[in-house]
Amino acid sequence: MTECCVSKENMIEGNSVELCPSCTSKGKKLKIITLKSMLKPSILDSLNPGLIHYFCPTKDCNVVYFDTEKKTYLTSEVKVTVHQKNDSLSVPVCYCFGWTKQKIKDYEEQSLTPNPLEHIRENVKADRCGCEVNNPQGSCCMGNVTKYIKSLSTTQA
Q1: Is the pLDDT of residue 153 over 90?
Q2: Where would I find the beta strands (DSSP E) of 98-151?
Q3: Domains and CATH numbers, the chain
């Protein structure tokens, strides 16, 4: 299994807490490779790789990333649509294996195979995921997929 889906604790050393300069929500620490792969080329020249960077998961906040000097990177400056910040059914929840909200919804409602979580687990086990460069949050999507599946069952109830 790749490092990206093994353990959140092992992924990034340190436990510092930083709050998003825009919404004051707690940010999630990232590896610099995530920003290098997610930021649009025109924005990369403003990136300071020597600083610690964070992901802001807050839905209504336009900031995706920020650093310890409070520099922000907005949704418009990222190459992909960020699942946490967009309700569109075409947005990926799993960026490595193409599980959009609509695809997960269809597979769950129709009990199709492969089951989204099983499919992702099999690929993680086979060392095929690349969450740190494919997923804007820089970590495994399994929690997001699980949460989204649970939200489907609560909206149908």
Answers
A1: no
A2: 99-100
A3: 3-77 (2.20.25.270), 83-156 (1.10.10)
